[in-house]
Amino acid sequence: MSINFFCQNVFFSLKKKSVVKTWILSAIQKEKKKAGEVFFIFCNDKFLLSLNKKFLKHNTFTDIITFQYPSEKLSAEIFISIPRVRENAKKFKVSFEDELHRVMIHGILHLCGYKDKTPTHKKKMRKREDFYLKLIFISR
């Protein structure tokens, strides 16, 4: 089991990688899942848009796309647009780091089975995101 971080077409360095890894693994365990290999790939808008078009047939910018591997363990590639996260942080009046952590845990929660297509599902997802965000804030 491992959490890995990479960059694609963007210059970015994640702060406190070991804290984030521990936090992600803890969330997976709390959701009663077994962690496999999770790859976070930080990228730019253009790269993520190309994935969105190619694999999801959506011609829109997004902050995150998650591709789950077929496995008994929670394994995936999670692509995150750093420019989208920066823009959303300004829009929602939160720090870049806080918004990045929310997007990261959002991807993990999707892998754990949480949905966000209906208002009820969105509310449940947001509540769980907030729960985990409180845990990483304690660690910082």
Keywords, separated by commas or semicolons:
140 residues; four-stranded mixed β-sheet; 5 helices; 4 strands
Can you give a write-up of this model?
The chain is 52% helix and 21% strand. It is of the alpha/beta class and 140 residues long. It has a single domain, classed as Collagenase (Catalytic Domain). It has a four-stranded mixed beta sheet with strand order 1-2-4-3, sandwiched between helices. A hairpin with a 5-residue loop joins strand 3 and strand 4. The radius of gyration is 14 Å and the shape is globular. The model has no long low-confidence stretch (mean pLDDT 95).
What would you say the CATH architecture is?
A: 3-Layer(aba) Sandwich
- What is the CATH level 1 assignment? Alpha Beta
| CATH H level, superfamily name | Metalloproteases ("zincins"), catalytic domain
Number of strand elements: 4
CATH fold name: Collagenase (Catalytic Domain)
User: What proportion of the residues form beta strands (DSSP E)?
Assistant: 15-25%
Order of helices and strands: EHEHEEHHH
Domain count: 1
Rg, rounded, reads 14 Å
Class computed from helices, strands and strand pairing = alpha/beta
Strand order of the largest sheet: 1-2-4-3
User: Percentage of helical residues?
Assistant: 40-55%
Distance between the termini: 23 Å
Mean pLDDT: 95
Unreliable stretches? none
Largest sheet: 4 strands, mixed
How many helical stretches? 5
Spatial shape:
globular
